Amino acid sequence: MTDTFQAYAGRPAAVGGRALDLVNAPMIRHWCEAMGDANAAYTGPAQVAPPAMLQSWTMAGLGGVGGVGDGRSAEYGDLLGALDAAGFTSVVATDCEQEYLRPLRPGQRVLYDSEIESVSAEKSTALGVGRFVTTRTDLRAYDEAAGEKAEEAVPVATHRFRILKFRPAEAPAPVRPSSEGERALRPRPVVNRDNAGFWDGVAEGELRFQRCTDCATPRLPWLPGCNACGSAAWTAEAASGAGTVYSYVVVHHPLPAAFREQGPYAVALVELEEGVRTVSNILGLPAAEVRIGLPVRLDFQCYDEELTLPVFRPATADDLPPLRVPVTRTLIVAGAIASRDYQDVHHDVELAHAKGAPDIFMNILTSNGLVGRYVTDWAGPGARLTGISVRLGVPAYPGDELTFTGRVVERDGPRRTVAVTGRTRRGAHATATVRLTTGEAQS
Ligand code: ZN
Fold it and tell me: Where in the chain is the domain with CATH 3.10.129.10?
């Protein structure tokens, strides 16, 4: 059953789109500066454009809708206008899936055509009631600087993009119980004056322990005084996250209600490399396979909207080192401008407020760029990204810190698939799958 909005599926979203600027070194440099991306592949004589920058070449820029370089079709404009008229006046990007067929190089002109792939039925979301609009864009390019003609353009990438057009919720949407009624929730931590620093750390994606100021003895769990020298003076430190299973039990029966769904689970005493031990769950392998001495790595598991707990997973060579990126106003604005995205919610606090957001927030192109940077920082300049799919969760606001973690989930010859999560203290901001071909630097 389709309604008037859904009937737009299959119609063109952009016809004969032509990038305003040739792929060029200055825009690449501005992008790399904004993302903090120092990859050598994006400078020097063999320069390519960062693949995650793809969408920047086709953005309409400050000219905006109807301006020079806006390849948007009349039908797509009609659809967005009709959604506005129906009260869905706010917009947020939710998904971005890109496949890179060939690297883009300075001197190339990007051409593109885009289709409205689907318009969803009305959905209730955490932001408000709205509709998802998905477009699919095919991009081609030719070397205009070398005298090639538009007819010689070859496919360079495909790009699927999903936005939510929504009516801002007056108040935060209530937590919906599951279909079985009230869902059994895990027990809440008991937070008091003595251990508040530990839970503050968890909220910021860190596992913090105390260190005695007088004798330097580390301690965990949190206590008011040092059990080595009795001193009440201490400082907090963040654990690296590396550890081993010191001891464990597997809980089979009776399983508390909140644990029934997952079946038997492992509770372990994990010895951290800093010399302290903590009780936690081991996830990521069957409970029966947990053993003493198992190398593990810290992760954070979100159990419900109010409960995220530190957990451990088996450490393997497939883990990428984590990357922490402070989310500053400068990063948000620099990323938006480097990607030619002048949506007001990414630079203007008052207009962001008017659209129901508590502050400006990071645009999806920056999230995409940071995911790309995170993986190529690890893979090295010889690697080539072949695809990035990003799903956005909680927005990233000024004052947040984004912690990226990643793991190689598939290997096939030189090809790798990496699962990446970028998390803030409020939960997962970006959940991504990155595909790449390894170069000499990373095999
Ligand atoms: Zn001490």
Answer: 1-171
The pocket of ion ligand 1, defined by CB under 5 A, consists of: 212, 214-215, 217, 226, 228-229, 231
Q: Write down the pLDDT at residue 69.
A: 52
Which of 335, 321, 310, 308 has its CA nearest to residue 396?
335
Residues of the chain with pLDDT under 70: 1, 64-70, 170-183, 440-443
The Å distance, Cα 269 to ligand 1 centre, comes to 23
Separation of CA 378 and ligand 1 centre (Å): 39
Distance 312 CA to ligand 1 centre (A): 28
pLDDT of residue 38: 95
What local confidence, expressed as pLDDT, does residue 146 receive?
Answer: 95
Contact indicator for 61, 71 with CB cutoff of 8 Å? no
For residue 272, the CA-to-ligand 1 centroid distance in Å is 19
Domain 1-171 falls under CATH 3.60.10.10: no
User: Which of the 8 DSSP states describes residue 147?
Assistant: T
